[in-house]
Amino acid sequence: MLERSGFTDVQVGPACDTFGGAGGEGNARAFDVYGYPFLARRRR
What superkingdom does the record give (predicted)? Predict the structure, then answer.
């Protein structure tokens, strides 16, 4: 999806727990929801 949006050199990092301590933490755990950092370059 990022490449189709005009980005190149896309790198995706490891899964991160972004819901620890949040109100929706229980739901996130039930559905194995994680955040992923990414780095990409915009084509010119």
Answer: Bacteria
